[in-house]
Design a protein that fits this description.
Strands 2-1-4-3 form a 4-stranded antiparallel β-sheet. Helix 2 packs across helix 5. It is 50% helix and 17% strand. It is built from 5 helices and 4 strands; from the N terminus they run ααββααββα. The protein has a single domain, classed as Beta-Lactamase, CATH 3.30.450.
């Protein structure tokens, strides 16, 4: 191997590492790949769901409705993806904090009704930063939570592949 070949290899590696380290918000390509993973798991579970992915500002990047999903699930999934970025926590955590007598009781009536206080939304965290959010709606709360947590766990694989 020549010095030029080694230099080219090192340059390629440095570029790839710096690109991955500099991810500050999820992009469309990543969102579509993440949604496909979650939809695959939903099919295995026998579910038709809506999956929404938002960027680091809470804006929708991609939303897909599986055949046969509920019409109402669209709005719910989008709002779950927004909620997790806006409040930097899963919607399941928020559910517990928004119960009567808890510190965030009534929060769902703020932010023009954009906040969802039941499970199925998770922040997308990469290198300790929230780069987006995922919201899933269409199953039971437990099923939505399972799918959104699965999506959040798939993020590193999506970014690093």
């Amino acid at each position: 191997m020549t010095n030029d070949n080694i230099a080219n290899i090192v340059e390629t590696i440095v570029k790839e590492v710096s690109q991955k380290a500099s991810v500050s918000s999820i992009n469309l390509c990543m969102a579509k790949r993440l949604i496909a993973k979650v939809e695959g798991k939903a099919k295995e579970m026998g579910l038709s769901v809506v999956v929404a992915v938002s960027d680091s500002a809470g804006n929708p990047v991609a939303v897909e409705c599986m055949d046969g999903s509920y019409l109402a699930s669209y709005d719910i999934a989008v709002k779950k993806a927004y909620t997790v970025v806006a409040l930097k926590m899963s919607t399941l955590t928020l559910k517990n904090l928004s119960q009567p007598g808890q510190s965030l009781y009534g929060i769902q009536f703020t932010n023009d009704g954009k906040l969802v206080i039941f499970g199925g939304g998770d922040p997308l965290i990469y290198n300790s930063n929230i780069i987006g959010g995922i919201g899933v709606s269409g199953g039971s709360e437990d099923q939505d939570v399972e799918l959104s947590e699965y999506g959040a766990k798939c993020l590193n694989e999506i970014i690093n592949s």
